[in-house]
Amino acid sequence: NLNGLHVRNTGSGIIIIGESTNLGIYNYYGYLFSDQGEYLWGNEGRHILEIDAYPSICLYDDCFYLERSGDWSYQRLLERYDYEGEMLWNDSVMWLENGDALGTKMLMRDDKIIIYSSLSFDWTSGKKVFLKGYYPDSSPIEGIPAEGLLICDEYAGQGLLDVNTSEPGKNIVLWEDSRNVGFSSSHKSIYAQKIDLTVLGEDDNEVISPVIINNYPNPFKEGTWFKVQEPGFRETGTIEIFNIKGQKLRTLDLEREISFWDGTNEKQKHVGSGIYLYRLIQDENEKSSGKMTLIK
Q1: Which of 6, 36, 56, 147 is the most buried (most CB within 10 A)?
Q2: Which of 74, 81, 31, 80 lies closest to 53, judged by CA?
Q3: Which segments within 55-203 are labelled E, that is strand?
């Protein structure tokens, strides 16, 4: 019996990979099916890989990526294999040298692999949600800082829940944390952030970092601060705030990388409790967006 099944529809057919575990050894087996359901690797499938550390796996058309612990539990490695089980890189990539990773997820964007994780680097820092990315040749993606792109650094015990593609070039990250209810509480809040993964402009020599905008506190009562997290942000732009009907309520100018909303519309009247949407506009283009909740 196979557990943890992974499925991908490729140009060669539908690939299914699952694991079988025995005494801490993980064996991975694969099956390839045609569109008509024929076994292309035989009825018994194919033994692909055996490792002694529990991994995460992400399938692609002609290869798969495997993320696992290194020589000790606080090291995390990334490897790339073909469907014969042959390593395609000369060496493993150590994407995390020292840290406690919780809920690591991987997604493909074009031919690049993106790693999302909630990490604790020491017992005093809490957990931070961030991402790293690599090209097929194992080199880091240009435009993403070497230490990773920070998504959330609230001292609130973040736990990564899920990552999914929302539209071409953009992912939605979902995590839980306890920033509004106390660190030790079991009643945590759920947060989501859209990540723009467009890292190269039309000029290949121009590197554009992904843009992230967050607001804190969220939910909020008296007001909330917006902060842009992007290395080299040009300090110009506006934040547009909408209700859930899509009606624009307020436009805020960015002062350097931050801005404050006091919960009022353009007529300086306080809006009611509810969910509101916001987006960052720069050079007449939407760079990032998010959701927030006003409570009274």
Answers
A1: 56
A2: 74
A3: 56-59, 64-69, 76-81, 93-96, 100-109, 112-120, 128-134, 149-152, 159-167, 170-177, 189-196
